[in-house]
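Same chain as my last thread, 290 residues:
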Amino acid sequence: MTSSSRFIDFCMRKERAAAAARLEPFQCVLDHSARFHLEVVSTPFSDALLDGPFFQSDDEREYPSINLVFVQSRNGNTEASDPSTLGGGETDKHVIYEGLSRLGADAVMSGARTIGRGNLIFSVWHPALVSLRQARRKPRHPIQIVATTSGAIPIETGLLFNVPDIRVVIMTGPRGAEALRDRLRSRPWISVLNTGAGSDLRAGVRRLHDEFGISRVSAVGGRTLATALIDQSLVKDLYLTTGAIDGGTRDTPFYEGSDFPERDLVVRKRSREGILFEHFILHDRGSSSA
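reply #2:
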């Protein structure tokens, strides 16, 4: 099967699964959104499922506005061989994770471990939200950003790296850039952003804005990347869904650091099954609470 046919098959499967999913509604149990200056994302489809609108921080001028999206089990684990066993449910997957959090995103950012064999394309799949993304004049699929230290990613075999219509930016240091140089010669749709010897993630993220025109990013992990983004005050919105069951690999929280920043709760929503969705705004280091 060619890369083009693999890509078409992948997209059709994702779109069919999203359209056929049984989506259980959430009820809003706390709403502090009026306290903040936020962009409102509101559609009849999503408002009915989330008991109100979805919120996101405004774009910034110098850095992309980054949201971080995670689902965790009831006992706080985020890694599992089958992510559905974390208990986030279909509404979280199709409406939040693969939907509203990416609706206005220019790019989706992930780590090398998250992409695995490279056979995932991070995009919006539910027909109702695909239409809304197109109405916002966004490309059908966001740019795919992959963060890697070593450059040990499946360039030759992964679907992600072999569809010319999907633009890819690889963020890496000098070692990774050198390892990738020859492997990327025949793939002009893939760019390497060398963050330098110190792997300055903050400078690299700013270059995403300045050199690639990326104003909004949805980051999907893994935990190492999420922790680095949080520790360098690059995450503005945290969308965290907590499942109603225990599960996942033990001791795998989404944040691995020791100094989680202050945060403000924007909304809290709960499903009848006990799944909890929360939106937090994370403070810059040293900033005061709102």
